Amino acid sequence: MKNERTRFLLSEEDIPRAYYNILADLPFELPPVLHPATGRPIGPEDLAPLFPMALIQQEVSREREIEIPEPVREIYRLYRPTPLIRARRLERMLDTPAHIYYKYEGVSPAGSHKLNTALAQAFYNKQEGVRGLTTETGAGQWGSALAMACRFFDLECTVFMVKISYHQKPYRRILMETFGARVIPSPSPETDAGRKVLAENPDSPGSLGIAISEAVEAAATSGGRLKYSLGSVLNHVLLHQTVIGLEAKKQMEMAGEYPDVVIGCVGGGSNFAGLALPFMRDRIVEGRPIRFVAVESTAAPSFTKGVYAYDYGDTVRTTPLLKMYTLGHTFTPAPIHAGGLRYHGMAPILCALYEKGYLEAVAYPQTKVFEAAVRFAQAEGILPAPESAHAIRAAIDEALRAKEEGRPRVILFNLSGHGHFDLAAYDQYLRGELPDYEYPAEEVLRALADLPRVPA
Ligand SMILES: *Cc1c(COP(=O)(O)O)cnc(C)c1O
Questions:
Q1: Residue that finishes a domain, picked among 234, 268, 284
Q2: For residue 45, is it within any domain?
Q3: To test the ligand 1 pocket, which listed residue (341, 346, 415, 421) has its Cβ within 8 A of the most ligand atoms?
């Protein structure tokens, strides 16, 4: 039977009751996380100054399903289940035999998928008596999500915002402040980490790596009053994002199709993982022949140009060492508009899957990305976040390949957020003034020389 539907909607009862933990199904061991001083595997007590115990346990849990707390599920009802939409008008515009579906996370009040984990993290912190959270934000998406989550769970919120974005994107700052957060441009004179960077380069545009250092320091020196919250990369963040893929699986079933290829943009990897991991289970456990494509920026090409090595998560070397594809913790990506993709590393779970051949990766420069974003907006009516537009670019190219080869396929991508706060970037693109930043080989080489040495 031919399915003519365009939007695949679930009801509130279909919001998942448990997150899906891929660690239960990985056919290999993840490399351990190492202590930055000793180079030995860390234990829960090492992370306790930064995270509540519930999240530390989730970080290493092997349980396949981890129950979503009811207060979190209740707030999910404000925007979940998110729609799965078949991009019929885009398909026609491209004249492709491919079927293109996207899961739209931009319907969340904060405008992106990031609220999925922000709410869970705020809940577990509140439950353990924490007074407030510190964090970093790039484009402001994560900061807005955490600011809202902190407000809903009655926590203080301090956000170190990458300085270039703080100035380029004042509206996100205002949104965070409306939710009651304190927003500080990073590098800032408020922390040792910030002061150190400013001493070396007073004009530093900042980076996620620097802002993380500041937020970690602010939590670690608060005497337990504040804890730190990270919006991507870590296992528990990817875990919370699996609500995206769990819903999408049901919705693809409603559509009577199954994806041949799953696509998502990657900064730290959480929105892509959120959509992909529940499908990855099908590939690992059931052997389904499904492809996974992670899309990054040529300005921060961790998968395609980085090395798989232990590295710090931040710039001034305060975090534990994670084994990941990295460009080096001292690398500062060019100030592209997709601020959420300006990160030197990548989620360890995705890195291990990439190394074992379960994922592909591709990198695009931002003009090609904005070209796809505008095409998508004109076909589907949604103005995508610059980050999400990387996934659109790859989905369009996949659909065009399907046409070229005369072989249909089902494409599913994650539209991780809307771009209503990124209109200045669109303006720059439409006026033909958007610069491309190619892969800065020499800077990366220099940064890779700074990788920590770890015992074999
Ligand atoms: C933060 C962000 C990203 C990148 O982060 P991931 O952890 O890789 O998902 C992508 N899209 C949007 C809309 C974001 O806000």
A1: 234
A2: yes
A3: 341
